[in-house]
Amino acid sequence: MRVMVAIDGSDESLYALKWALDLLLVGPKDNADDVATSTGTATLEAPHAGSHENVSMVTLIHVMQPFQNYVLPAAGSAELRKEQEEKAAAILARALEICKDKMIKAETLILRGDPKDRICEATEQRHVDLLVVGSRGLGMVKRAFLGSVSSYCAHHAKCPVVIVKPPKESGKQ
Asked: Which residues form the UspA domain (predicted)?
């Protein structure tokens, strides 16, 4: 099974990665009730869950938004691109460390463009069996104006998509 996890550096995307590694690749643990029930969804059973031998590799994808060239002079744009690439590498290094801690092989993929489109294209090009994305929990108004990468991927990716919601914080009203 080929699994791709979208990573944008947010806590929500890193939670989705940990969720995927814990539940889909390693299998549920006896003491993992907090992870299994915090999503508020039914238990998801992957084929041969509990055995990560069926997962050849996890692909961690990060998409950098393109800059609007008319906003900055060329020299400033090149500097910002370099900074953006360094930030992307740092984000994926953090995600790779999570995979390493779980003893799961992972590869990284950094693309430039609209995250919604590029993630869907990558799943098709790489023949991904499952895409995992985190949910930022945008309200209806923000989602209408900003759009939702997870929602778009759920409707346009050519493979099954799991949208992982982070656990609700206790004490928050």
From this structure: 58-165
Q: What is the pLDDT of residue 155?
A: 93
Strands of the sheet with 3-6, listed across from one edge: 106-112, 58-64, 3-6, 130-134, 161-164
Rg (CA), the chain: 17
99-148 confidence digits (pLDDT tens): 999 899 999 999 999 999 999 999 999 999 999 999 876 655 555 544 58
Please choose, from the candidates 44, 18, 39, 23, the residue with its C-alpha nearest in 3D space to the C-alpha of residue 166.
39
- Using DSSP, state whether 102 is helix, strand or coil: coil
| CA–CA dist 6, 100 (Å, integer) | 17
Token duo for residue 16: 């989705």
- Report all structural domains of the chain as residue ranges with CATH numbers, in order of start: 3-29+47-164 (3.40.50.620)
Q: 73: exposed, middle or buried (C-beta count within 10 Å: 0-12, 13-18, 19+)? A: exposed
d(CA 17, CA 23): 10
Could you tell me if residue 170 is left (phi over 0), alpha (psi between -120 and 50 degrees) or otherwise beta?
beta
Question: What 3-state class would DSSP assign to 11?
Answer: helix
The average confidence (pLDDT) of the chain is 79
